[in-house]
Write a structure and sequence with these properties.
- The complex is a heterodimer.
- Chain A is mainly α.
- Chain A has one domain.
- Helix content of chain A is 77%, strand content 1%.
- Chain A is built from eleven helices and two strands.
- Chain A has a two-stranded antiparallel ribbon with strand order 1-2.
- In chain A, helix 3 packs across helix 10, helix 7 packs antiparallel against helix 10 and helix 7 packs parallel to helix 11.
- Chain A is globular and about 65 Å long.
- Chain B has 13 helices and two strands.
- Chain B has one domain.
- The termini of chain B are far apart.
- Chain B is globular.
- In chain B, a hairpin with a 2-residue loop joins strand 1 and strand 2.
- By secondary structure, chain B is mainly alpha-helical.
- Chain B is 73% helix and 1% strand.
- In chain B, helix 2 packs parallel to helix 7 and helix 3 runs antiparallel to helix 7.
- The chains are: A mainly alpha, B mainly alpha.
- At the A-B interface, helix 2 and helix 8 of A face helix 2, strand 1 and helix 10 of B.
């Protein structure tokens, strides 16, 4: 088939999932607004802790961060986490538990693609409702704090690219985690463990620059920093051109690895699947 | 007449304790069946706390103190905050379900048919063992910090600490109940509960690091700081003894009264959603 036609057919098949995702997100908007308010509270607590830390240390600059940098870091990190987070593991897990996965498997659509396109619908709404106001707020803060406009279109576009890759990585990684539901019933507890650890190793709790050297280097090469730290550093202009290229390449590499792993798990799991009840 | 009512009240309380024991035993039996799930649930909350502690450890690698509070003092305050929080989580977790789905799905009806106070039966029905994750971290933090700091200890600090923890727990329960009750009118208020509950993150650290407005809010408006910072700092330094212990008690009594009032108001407007 002609590649253009193939793409069109693909989109025709999956865009309805995106539409359904947007509708679901509209219905549950109070859900993610509450969640976002929660992460703003977390940002504020962290903000005051860092304020006390910078006050106590007496230096205006710690590990390449000023207090203003840290403020931008906290809010952009919260935003990035919010946009790149994927519920894949929960959805896959729930469907495995209640047997609905059978309905998905008998339809002539890709297993990954249906989840992916539904979630993209959610993300589009989050983007409209939360992303724009927060970025505007952060830029106004930066304008006041640094005196002058420091917003560059190229950094912003690279940030968007990196964040999209973060999301894809997060999606495939979470699908892998979702299959753990084959073995566990308490997905809730498992998800808390997973997200707490991920927040730490992705540089979401504390910038990787503040961690002990060996740990920092390890975390920069492991896949998790690409979840959050890489796009945020790009947004803040902390990486040089060469570093950006390297970091994006690392992100891309890990997406491929986790895509392949999730495919492998899926095909192995499907050979063993036995759906109970109905 | 009055005597009779008091007698009745105490009878109800005794009954509540007995029910709590029965339900707790029931849950523990369930646990034995799903041991791995219990371990994972408790481990989840444990890991969440450990990550926060790792953050504090990294920060205190750089600075000596945060607005006058040293590392081990901050650990003590953080650890103390986990007791009221964890106990409320252990005993009164079911209120979340009222806010999130019980009223919306009509499942709340079953409580109306029970011959006991509705709030009582809702709260004793669930026994959330995941909370042990928090309590274990709390004990570990207090134990660690006590090895490094010297408390100005007198014997009555122990009953005072227990009183503060008990009433701190009730502050959590009351705030959850107040916002959970809103679901009687709106069918669902879980997210509102979550937003308010999340403010407790402010209470895990010394409130002296916050701006005046934030400090005022977490002391007088949604008073989570009364469950942790104030009693803990009294135990650490014997400062503000009257306020630190009395304020949590007064706040808990006021909030519980408001919670009971709103709950019963809500019950009177409740009509089943059903399906």
């Amino acid at each position: 088939m002609h590649p253009f036609k193939a793409t069109k057919k693909y989109l025709n098949t999956y865009l309805p999932f995106t539409r359904a995702g947007i509708q679901a997100a509209m219905a549950y908007r109070s859900n993610f607004i509450a969640w976002f308010v929660g992460s703003i509270v977390y940002c504020l607590v962290m903000y005051y802790i860092w304020l006390a830390v910078f006050n106590a240390s007496g230096d205006g600059m710690m590990n390449g961060f000023t207090m203003n940098d840290m403020t931008v870091f906290l809010f952009i990190t919260a935003l990035t986490n919010f946009l790149t987070d994927s519920d894949g593991s929960y959805d896959v897990g729930e469907e495995i538990k209640d047997g609905n996965i059978a309905m998905r498997l008998i339809k002539p659509v890709g297993f990954h693609s249906t989840f992916l396109f539904t979630e993209i619908g959610w993300k589009l709404l989050v983007f409209a409702l939360i992303f724009a106001p927060v970025v505007t707020g952060v830029e106004i803060f930066k304008y006041n704090a640094y005196g002058g406009i420091s917003f560059t279109v190229i950094h912003f576009l690279l940030y968007m690219l990196s964040m999209t890759m973060s999301y894809l990585f997060s999606f495939f990684m979470n699908v892998c985690f979702g299959f753990i539901a084959f073995f566990l019933k308490n997905l809730w507890g498992f998800n808390i463990i997973k997200s707490s650890i991920l927040r730490f190793v992705s540089g979401g709790v504390i910038p990787l620059a503040f961690m002990p050297d060996g740990l920092r280097q390890a975390l920069e090469w492991l896949p998790f920093s690409s979840l959050c730290y890489t796009p945020v550093m790009i947004y803040m202009g902390k990486y040089s051109g060469g570093e950006i290229a390297l970091r994006l390449a690392v992100q891309f590499g890990w997406i491929i690895v986790f895509y392949l792993i999730s495919k492998l798990i899926l095909s192995t799991a499907l050979r063993h699947v036995s759906v109970q009840g109905g | 007449m009055k005597n009779k009512r008091i007698m009745h009240f105490f009878k109800e309380i005794r009954r509540a304790f007995r029910l709590q024991r029965i339900f707790a035993a029931l849950h523990l039996k369930k646990l034995m069946e799903y041991k791995a799930d219990f371990v994972i649930g408790a481990l989840g909350f444990l890991v969440e706390q450990v990550i926060n502690i790792a953050f504090l450890a990294i920060i205190f690698g750089r600075v000596e103190n945060l607005r006058g509070w040293g590392y081990y003092e901050v650990l003590f305050i953080y650890g103390f905050s986990l007791f009221p929080n964890g106990l409320d989580h252990l005993f009164f977790d079911n209120i979340w379900n009222v806010g999130y789905w019980m009223i919306r799905k009509g499942d709340f009806d079953k409580y109306l048919t029970r011959p006991i106070n509705t709030l009582l039966i809702v709260t004793v029905e669930e026994f959330q063992v995941d909370a042990f994750g928090k309590l274990i971290v709390g004990i570990a933090l207090i134990a660690t910090s006590l090895r490094h700091i010297h408390l100005p200890f007198v014997w009555y600090d122990i009953p005072l600490a227990l009183i503060a923890i008990l009433f701190g727990m009730l502050i959590y329960t009351a705030i959850k109940t107040i916002f959970g009750s809103i679901a009687f009118w709106t069918k669902r208020s879980g997210h509102l509960m979550e937003v308010t509950y999340n403010l407790n993150q402010f209470s895990q650290y010394p409130v002296s690091i916050y701006s005046r407005a934030v400090r005022g809010a977490v002391t007088y408006v949604i008073p989570f700081a009364l469950t942790s910072y104030y009693p803990a700092s009294y135990l650490l330094r014997h400062t503000q003894p009257v306020f630190s212990i009395l304020a949590p008690v007064v706040a808990a009594v006021i909030l519980i009264s408001i919670a009971l009032f709103i709950w019963h108001k809500g019950l009177s407007v409740y009509d089943s959603a059903g399906s």
